[in-house]
Amino acid sequence: MSTRFVPDQRVRIADRDAPGHVRTPVYVRGKEGRIERVLPRFLNPEREAYGVNEGGEVRLYRVRIEQSALWPDYDGPADDVLELEIYEHWLEQVDDRSGAEGR
Amino acid sequence: MATKRDMIVRPAHDLGGLPAGPVVPSDHEMTPFEKSCHALLNVLAAHKLVNTEEKRRGVEDLGAEIIGELTYYERWAVSASKVLIEKGVITSEELGARMNEIRDRLTKAAA
Amino acid sequence: MTNAHETGTVDHGDHTHGTPGAPDPHAPIETAAEEPDYFDVLHQAIRELLVDKGLITADEVRAMVETLDAHRPALGSALVARAWTDPDFKERLLADGTAAIEEFGIDNYDGTRLIVLEQTPEVHNLVVCTLCSCYPRPVLGLPPDWYKSRPYRARAVREPRALLREFGTDVPQDVTIRVHDSNANMRYLVLPMRPAGTEGLSEEELAALVTRDTMIGVTTPRSP
């Protein structure tokens, strides 16, 4: 099974408007994290919400994001993380070597 | 104060990270309406008459004010009615007529 | 987002009322002949119309009510007790939650897929759905009102430690918190740690220690 992203790969969640129904919450858009695991493909909820019940399945991933990357004022330990599910079309590659600090 | 843009970009159901008060550890036993409404929506999803995402989209489209006032299952019932009419599964006319019939029936039964 | 939720509201758990000082909208109506509830009538009308059109049957809806009644947190408690006493089962549960609950005899009636999250001395897991009310219904039944409430959904992802303290759960600073936003297709069940001093207990006695809230991750099981 080849997938566009693999476990532990660094990714960015797209920062874009979503005028229709989506399952990518606003608070993670534009944030960076790592692929925690690869999940199956599912119907695209952005089409399913308008009655499209077959075809166009998209890969789903679990993404792990450090809390400090989500909330600049997070006051818990640096290891605290958040994990959530993101569809492939919301994920962007990040060049790991250039480092992702400061985003 | 939320700007007009915020009201669109941040739909009323997307709550992660917003300011909010303490969690009140509340719960209640389901009423017959709630149970029956939940069961109906599950059946509608199984038949893909109103799939889960359509139901959610229907709720989101109600807007912040209505979402805030209606209870959880009241939102589901309204969402289902709007999605079914929009898809042409039922018409507004027949739904309205059936609601009148049921209301008459219930009122007579209560009398 | 409007500010209507932030001040002067009455929070009923799953919804709020925005008019401070206004009469409670849920107060009993005094009139003798009470008008049937709009939403109750609406959902009955939908059901009747679709049954008449042959698209669903009344029996399906009745059977689904029974299914909802049959799925209670006790199923999850029994599942956890089995995982505590059978290491091979625990391994299967963590590897593939959906297959393991079906093996255990739980009807995965909503067709969702389950990920089981193990509490350890190093990691504390907490589950929330910020977008709606996604919840592992086959194993825990329907979610409590507070799980669907604005404060829980808004704050669990941003200040999990403060929120957990409100539930009486103080997670030490050397324990990592993993918050799981159940925002799409998967569902999550927390597998709590077996408390000390429970070596002699039967599976049934162990199950009694496993409350619903421990399987959401807001509390931990108490020693008997």
Automatic annotation (TrEMBL), chain A:
It comes from the Bacteria. InterPro entries: CN_hydtase_beta_dom_C, Elect_transpt_acc-like_dom_sf. Residues 3-92 form the Nitrile hydratase beta subunit domain. Coiled coil: none annotated. Gene3D superfamilies: 2.30.30.50. This is Nitrile hydratase beta subunit domain-containing protein. It comes from Streptomyces fumanus.
TrEMBL record, chain B:
It comes from the Bacteria. SUPFAM superfamilies: Electron transport accessory proteins (SSF50090). Residues 12-105 form the Nitrile hydratase beta subunit-like N-terminal domain. This is Nitrile hydratase beta subunit-like N-terminal domain-containing protein. It holds the Pfam family NHase_beta_N. Coiled coil: none annotated.
UniProtKB/TrEMBL annotation, chain C:
It catalyses: an aliphatic primary amide = an aliphatic nitrile + H2O. Its EC number is 4.2.1.84. The keyword Iron applies. InterPro entries: CN_Hdrase_a/SCN_Hdrase_g_sf, CN_Hdrtase_a/SCN_Hdrlase_g, CN_Hdrtase_asu/SCN_Hdrlase_gsu, Nitrile_hydratase_asu. GO terms for molecular function: nitrile hydratase activity; transition metal ion binding. Residues 8-17 have a biased composition (Basic and acidic residues). Gene3D superfamilies: Nitrile hydratase alpha /Thiocyanate hydrolase gamma (3.90.330.10). It is an enzyme of class 4 (lyase). NCBIfam families: nitrile_alph (TIGR01323). Belongs to the nitrile hydratase subunit alpha family. This is nitrile hydratase. The lineage of its organism: Bacteria, Bacillati, Actinomycetota, Actinomycetes, Kitasatosporales.
